[in-house]
Amino acid sequence: MALFPRFSSSAAMNVMLALFFLLLTRSSAAQLSENFYSNKCPKVFNAVKSVVHSAIAKEPRIGASLLRLHFHDCFVNGCDGSILLDDTSSFRGEKTAPPNNNSVRGFEVIDAIKSKVEETCPGVVSCADIVAIAARDSIAILGGPYWNVKVGRRDSKTASFSDASSGVIPPPFSTLSNLISRFQAQGLSVKDMVALSGAHTIGKARCASYRDRIYNDTNIDKLFAKSRQRNCPRKSSGTPKDNNVAVLDFKTPTHFDNSYYKNLINKKGLLHSDQQLFNGGSTDSLVRTYSSNEKTFNSDFVTAMIKMGNIKPLTGSNGQIRKHCRRAN
Ligand code: HEM
Ligand SMILES: *[C@@H]1O[C@H](CO)[C@@H](O)[C@H](O)[C@H]1NC(C)=O
Ligand SMILES: *[C@@H]1O[C@H](CO)[C@@H](O)[C@H](O)[C@H]1NC(C)=O
User: Fold this and answer.
1) What is the assigned CATH class of domain 44-164?
2) Where, by residue number, is the active site (predicted)?
3) Contact present, 97 and 161 (Cβ < 8 Å)
4) How far away, in angstroms, is 229 Cα from ligand 3 center?
């Protein structure tokens, strides 16, 4: 009997602790909102959209590049615009880290958006938010889903080469279990990972990223491999051939749709990591679902994009609103 009150008070303590953590996690996510700029800069969304629109009209691939910029920003210490920072004398930033070097693009578009936004609302809109909005707009302009993007992120004052090189961004030769654990480390589920990978329905990759796959993998369509080998010779490391590009979705490379998953079912994923999602493992069934049901894909993709955009934002008095996206104030 004497134990009973002690038991119940520790149970009450557990409930309180659980509530406390619930509040903590909820409040950090709730700091981003759809209407953060409603009073401070209502024109931001039109400004971003018009610059993204003309950039895509000039070069459709840039939409893919802007989407990838958001992904690589969020996976390295949260969505804080750190990927945009040029190296300085006090830090070496993310731009030349292996996942990014000679590969990430779109910085000029972000600069153009930033200067347009600064004209109307100086010092108000963060670079991290601009990247998130530009990614959303790119997807919509290329025929994909549209959603209300959450904003209110602030910008980092620094960036880290070593954090960006540490493997938090999974490499293209990843196994399925590495892909799953890399996304789980960011609070993203297996379903989020498979849905977000559908981003490879647009954009291009360099020969260096898929060479091993087209010469060494066995779970690849033979004719598909042959045709990719023409523009990506086996031995050329260090030569310009490394930077030859191929489209990630050979069917509709500038249209945001679910054909990425149809390609996987036909063993025509370009990256080794792409084909890992459909290789007899636990994610096969999701790939089948998305390949036959574009609505389910779009809806899961949007859910996962919002979750990815919520990774560790700087809010409140943390970080700053940069004046120029390439350098801290
Ligand atoms: C699942 C793990 C992922 C791996 C291993 C991966 C890997 C890669 C690689 C190697 C490239 C080509 C880079 C190059 O050769 O220059 C690429 C391109 C791209 N990735 Fe991913 N990626 C992953 C997930 C994502 C996610 C979550 C997104 C966005 C939500 C994304 C969006 C893109 C886009 C749009 C491109 C094309 C970029 C362009 O054309 O400029 N990827 N990815
Ligand atoms: C980035 O790419 C350049 C140009 O190819 C190369 O010279 C440099 O060594 C690369 N940097 C890193 C850190 O890999
Ligand atoms: C393929 O595998 C062989 C043997 O493991 C390796 O030597 C080679 O570098 C790999 N990549 C290519 C592109 O052949």
Assistant:
1) mainly alpha
2) 72
3) yes
4) 14
Instruction: Give the residue carrying structure tokens 């500038």.
Output: 254
- Tracing tokens 């018009």 back to the chain, one arrives at 50
176-305 and 44-164 share a CATH fold: no
Where exactly are the structural domains of the chain?
Answer: 44-164, 176-305
**Tokens found for residue 211:** 């060479």
pLDDT of residue 27: 44
> What is the rounded CA–CA span in Å between residue 53 and residue 49?
6
Residue 277's pLDDT is what? 98
Below-50 pLDDT ranges, the chain:
1-7, 21-30
**Ligand 3 pocket, mutate which of 210, 213, 216, 218 (most atoms under 8 A from CB):** 216
pLDDT of residue 241: 84
Alpha-carbon span 100 to 285, nearest angstrom: 31
* Nearest CA-CA partner of 68 in 139, 164, 143: 139
- Return the SS3 of 86: coil
- CA-based nearest residue to 251, from 235, 272, 265: 265
User: Is CATH 1.10.420.10 correct for 176-305?
Assistant: yes
Cα distance from N-terminal residue to C-terminal residue, the chain: 64
Closest ligand to the CA of 208: 1
What atom of ligand 3 comes closest to residue 211's alpha carbon? 13
Question: How far away, in angstroms, is 212 Cα from ligand 3 center?
Answer: 7
Question: What's the pTM?
Answer: 0.92
Return the ligand 1 atom nearest residue 304 CA.
30
CA–CA distance, 321 with 125 (Å, rounded to integer)? 7
Q: Which residue has the tokens 């560790």?
A: 312
